[in-house]
Structure formats: structure tokens, C-alpha cells
């Protein structure tokens, strides 16, 4: 989501930092919709956070906490699809970023039930949850032109830990799913068939994992650069006041 004037773009990796140029903010109607959307999404991810804490306190263990937040996680992560085409950034880039998480939520974690007890799932769920609470809060306050410095600082700082944490959880979860996908032939299409087309989901998941190699360093260093740019500008502005 973006705020009026020089707005923060959704075109980031999901763990902080932004890409793209500064663009014009949305009109009054769009702003109203975006405020409501961001408030709802912030509340949704807070529900997930509270669910994780309550389940941990009840069980006394962090293992298999996924089941305690499975439904709200699916709902609110899939709800991010509503951002595509609305935010002032590349539709293709936004769609790619949103779909990558939706893919992991449904096509990996939901579809390969054996990985749902893996600790790696909790790793990316915690990273996503903290990230999204900060991100949607950031967008909400930006739209209202009352952005607290603490939220801005958190958005452009906590990704230093959250991004590697989330990526590690995602990769480990996909890796854990591979044996079960190969054994079951999940989503795979074998020849011969009337479409004369074959698809190996196992190989596809491996290619997805490999795609992280060029993407992760590029986005991470971009975000570090963006952090220096945004926070240093903020500090200079505060000193001049």
C-alpha cells in the first residue's frame, strides 16, 4: 500500500525496503479503501500473532504451532491478492511477490501435510507475521499522514533479521516437501496423455529453490541501500526541525 504524495510502495520483498520510484498517491476513494484494507490486514496478522503466543503458552512447546493459526494464515495471506492492481507499483512485480507466498501457503504447506509439523514452517510464519504487522501498520499510518518514527524504523530495520529468517524457513519447508512430492507424484502429469504434455512438480520445486540464489542477495542488498537512504533522510529532517 502507499501513502499520498511520495508514497511507500508495495513493490518490496515483503520483509521491508521498497523498490521503484516515488509515485502519486491514491485519490480520496482509493485512500479510504486502502486505509480500511490495511487496518483489517493489520488486525488479521495480530490475530495470527496472538494465536501463536496462546498456543505456545498452552502447549509449552513451539513444535507444531502451525495448526493453531492455519485458517487465519491462509485467509489473510491469500487476502494479499487484493493488493494486486491497486498499489502504485508494477502489477507484475506485486503479483509475483504476493503469489510466491500464496504458493508456499497452499501449494507446499497445505498440499504436503507432512511438512506442517516441521519447525521450518514456524520459522517463516513468525517472520511473515512480524513483517506484515509492521508493514500494514506502516501503510495505514502513512495513508493518514501520521507515521510514527518507530514504525518507520522497524520497517526499514527488522528486515535485516526477518528476511533471512523467512527465506530460510521457506527453503527448508520446500526441501522437506520434496521426498513426499516425489513419492506421491503430487501435481505431476506423466506422458502419454491426450494433451501431449508432462509436468514434474518435484523438479519444479527444485527450480523454485534455485531461483532464490540470484534473487535473495539482490533484494537484500537493495534493501540495505534503501534503509540507509530512508533513515538517513529522516534523521536529517528531524535535525533540521
TrEMBL record:
Listed transmembrane segments: 34-57, 78-100, 120-144, 156-181, 201-221
Any one of the GO CC terms: endoplasmic reticulum membrane
Statement: the UniProt record of this protein carries the keyword Transmembrane helix: yes
Alphabetic keyword roster: Endoplasmic reticulum, Fatty acid biosynthesis, Fatty acid metabolism, Lipid biosynthesis, Lipid metabolism, Lyase, Membrane, Transmembrane, Transmembrane helix
Principal location listed in the UniProt entry: endoplasmic reticulum
Enzyme class, broadest EC rank: lyase
Location relative to the cell: Endoplasmic reticulum membrane; Membrane
Signal peptide interval: none
Biochemical pathway: Lipid metabolism; fatty acid biosynthesis
One Pfam short name: PTPLA
Reactions catalysed, as given in the entry: a very-long-chain (3R)-3-hydroxyacyl-CoA = a very-long-chain (2E)-enoyl-CoA + H2O; (3R)-hydroxyhexadecanoyl-CoA = (2E)-hexadecenoyl-CoA + H2O
Entry's EC annotation: 4.2.1.134
Gene Ontology annotations of biological process type: fatty acid elongation; sphingolipid biosynthetic process; very long-chain fatty acid biosynthetic process
GO molecular-function terms, A-Z: very-long-chain (3R)-3-hydroxyacyl-CoA dehydratase activity
Membrane topology qualifier: Multi-pass membrane protein
Function: Catalyzes the third of the four reactions of the long-chain fatty acids elongation cycle. This endoplasmic reticulum-bound enzymatic process, allows the addition of two carbons to the chain of long- and very long-chain fatty acids/VLCFAs per cycle. This enzyme catalyzes the dehydration of the 3-hydroxyacyl-CoA intermediate into trans-2,3-enoyl-CoA, within each cycle of fatty acid elongation. Thereby, it participates to the production of VLCFAs of different chain lengths that are involved in multiple biological processes as precursors of membrane lipids and lipid mediators.
Similarity annotation: Belongs to the very long-chain fatty acids dehydratase HACD family.
Name of the protein this chain belongs to: Very-long-chain (3R)-3-hydroxyacyl-CoA dehydratase
Organism: Xiphorhynchus elegans
Amino acid at each position: 500500500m502507499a501513502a499520498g504524495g511520495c508514497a511507500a510502495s508495495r513493490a518490496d520483498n515483503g520483509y521491508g525496503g521498497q523498490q521503484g520510484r516515488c509515485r502519486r498517491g491514491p485519490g480520496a476513494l482509493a485512500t479510504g479503501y486502502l486505509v480500511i484494507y490495511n487496518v483489517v490486514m493489520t488486525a488479521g496478522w495480530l490475530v495470527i500473532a496472538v494465536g501463536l503466543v496462546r498456543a505456545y503458552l498452552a502447549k509449552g512447546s513451539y513444535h507444531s504451532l502451525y495448526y493453531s493459526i492455519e485458517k487465519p494464515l491462509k485467509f489473510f495471506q491469500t487476502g494479499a491478492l487484493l493488493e494486486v492492481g491497486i498499489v502504485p507499483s508494477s502489477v507484475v512485480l506485486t503479483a509475483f511477490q504476493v503469489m510466491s507466498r500464496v504458493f508456499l501457503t497452499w501449494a507446499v504447506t497445505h498440499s504436503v501435510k507432512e511438512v506442517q509439523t516441521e519447525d521450518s514452517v514456524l520459522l517463516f510464519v513468525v517472520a511473515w507475521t512480524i513483517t506484515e504487522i509492521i508493514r500494514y501498520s506502516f501503510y495505514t499510518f502513512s495513508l493518514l499522514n501520521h507515521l510514527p518514527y518507530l514504525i518507520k524504523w522497524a520497517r526499514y530495520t527488522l528486515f535485516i533479521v526477518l528476511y533471512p529468517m523467512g527465506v530460510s524457513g521457506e527453503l527448508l519447508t520446500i526441501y522437506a516437501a520434496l521426498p513426499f512430492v516425489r513419492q506421491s507424484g503430487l501435481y505431476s502429469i506423466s506422458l502419454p496423455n491426450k494433451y501431449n504434455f508432462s509436468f514434474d512438480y518435484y523438479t519444479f520445486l527444485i527450480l523454485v529453490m534455485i531461483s532464490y540464489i540470484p534473487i535473495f542477495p539482490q533484494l537484500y542488498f537493495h534493501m540495505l541501500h534503501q534503509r540507509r537512504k530512508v533513515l538517513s533522510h529522516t534523521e536529517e529532517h528531524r535535525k533540521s526541525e
